[in-house]
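[SOLVED] Need 3D model of a two-part complex

Original post:
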Amino acid sequence: MDWGSIFTNTAASMLSPATMAFALAALGLAVHFGFVGLLNFGIAGFMAVGAYGYAISTLTFGFPWWGAMIAGILASVVFAVLLGIPTLRLRGDYLAIVTIGAAEIVRLLFTSQAWQPVTGSADGLSGFQGSFRSVNPFPEGDYGFGPWQYTENQLWVLVFGAIVLALCVLLLWRLVNSPWGRVIKGIREDEDAVRALGKNVFAYKMQALIVGGVFGGLGGIIYVLPSSTNPGVFITSLTFFVWTALLLGGAATVFGPLLGALIFWVLQAFLGSFLPALVNIGLLGDFTSAQAGSLRYVLVGLGLMLIVIFRPQGILGNKKELTFVK
Amino acid sequence: MNTTTTISPTLGKRTVMTLIVMVLAFFSVFAAQPALADTVGDNFDDTIVGNIKNEGEPLQGVVIKVEGNGYSAEVASDAEGKWAIGVPEKGTYKVTLVEDTLPEGIAVLEGGAQQEVTFGRTGTVVQNFFIGEGERNTISILDQFLMRLFDGLNFGLLLGLASIGLSLVFGTTALPNFAHGEMVTFGAIMALMLVGFGVPFWIAIPGAVVLGGASGWAMDAGLWKPLRSRNIGLVQLMIVSIGLSLSVRYIYQFFIGGDTAQLPYSSGTGEIPLFRTVSLGVVDLISMGISLIVIIIFAWWLTRTKIGKATRAVSDNPALASASGIDVDKVIRVVWITASALAALAGVMWAYFRPGIRWDMGTQILLFIFAAGVLGGLGTAFGALVGAMIVGVLIETSALFIPSDLKYVGALVVMIVILLFRPQGILGRKERIG
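Solution:
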């Protein structure tokens, strides 16, 4: 068995745009679910809206990279408001169903051929990185050491992603330790009590939905920034994978989503190399490598079930902080 | 954009094989698929291609639609009359030539403007139409509507079988079961497996339903009952059902792979002409008949038998039902078995309706099962049925007015709108929404 390449793949996944994108999206879910108790199962929709907001404003309207970032963020805000108005008054499980449905509507709209020249339909969009790469501070060349090897463009995406992630973590950390954060945690524990204190629960929920949605949208942008965007990526399974990462790290924590995303992708990369390697040396009977690939996701699902049953607060969480009461 | 067409972006043109116009010519290209001039979905490996010519003259701008396996696309032929549509999976697709886009006086002469194509072992299948001067077999809007309505009722009935189960489980345990789609897939895969073992077709399908019921028993005994005993919160249970859905779905992929398989009689069983141009598929009629019979038996069970009445009592108020001496755990066990068996039957019918069996076929309709349940009122069995009929008919008939790849959006929008104005659904009661 080639332990060298298994180790290289696993280590490389620690520092990848996908890991950072998951961390951002999970951070958004932490705001929604961990701190306000909103069961948002449409985070893939927020990511799609952010990614397409960036790609379409660049390709169709010729925005520079920073303008496209703002467009992606605004698109996430609009999606959050549109989603929030009808649904925030609903009970948790209904909200879950509606958010899944809304994310699917977004994906179907981007897949449809009705707006093919703008959205690229099922083929997706690519070639929107020009402006972003033109401000790359790294000169052309190869960077890195050991398993972490990057071209100047890959390095730029990583550094940029890390900066965005750090800013979002800082913002969330400040927010949840502010009076605003105490109110939203109060809403999670007992909505009626907070309402009795004279707070506008709906407005707080909407603000939290927008903040988390913007994190999700930024996650979508970082997710597609290295190459291209395709509606097939933003399926319901993506939402569930982000949830797995969130619950793994700890839903009601600031650093849990980061840790969860890291562990999720490291395990994915490890199993992605390790299981086929086991097949190759015949340790898994007569499995094919495709079957080894399916096995990886079977384990994700099992992992999700086990976390929720045996450690619902996640690795970093405090059991008192999140009781899944509602 | 290629200058020869303004409808779709084009790939680079290479010399493409010359094709003569023929009726239902299926043959496969073994080498890499040639770059065809007018193409959609070229990121998919499998492609349906064709060439539209009238007496050797290529026809440009003729619109071709492909529909099937939960996917639809359309493309217009280029200056050489060629078109290609990439599809996400091998399977059976309906290919339609939109006759309105043919030049004046030209029509599809034989075989009809709508054809079914099935992929063989290779990734390309050719579909050409026999066209020439002649009268068009136009299908009036009314006839199209009637056929869509029929399809919609068929889809609605199978959706109803699945959403009744979802609604019963929600009513008795308050769990929105996100693994319900996998219970649907289970029935189809079990039927396929039994047929593969050489079990006669007419035993295999009831067998699949029985195995579905057994899986419901196993799920409740092995997972849900222990979790109820541990007093696990509702949101946690919901996320457990999501984890279960992921795991089970990829277990299916593990065993049957990523391809589409077909049950016997899934194509070419003929149609019964009704009136004018309306005709009904034999398999569809049988499927609808079975659904109706099962639903009537189910309604009798729920309203007339002791256990059915107990189920409704638990659905209404579990604490009160328990205090009146109803064994709530037993009722919930029966509900899981019933829901799984109904879902398995829906899975077999979904396999004929799509058509084809795939590892993620249940997930494809999960949201419509939910939409049906929400529309009718989650927790009400008959509401789910009404909701399912509405969703099924809406999805199929809306394709007459909006682009066919957006027809599934309509059902989801209706689900959200109904939650906005009447969150308890058509037959639900207000206190359920909390």
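Edit: Chain A has a mean pLDDT of 91.
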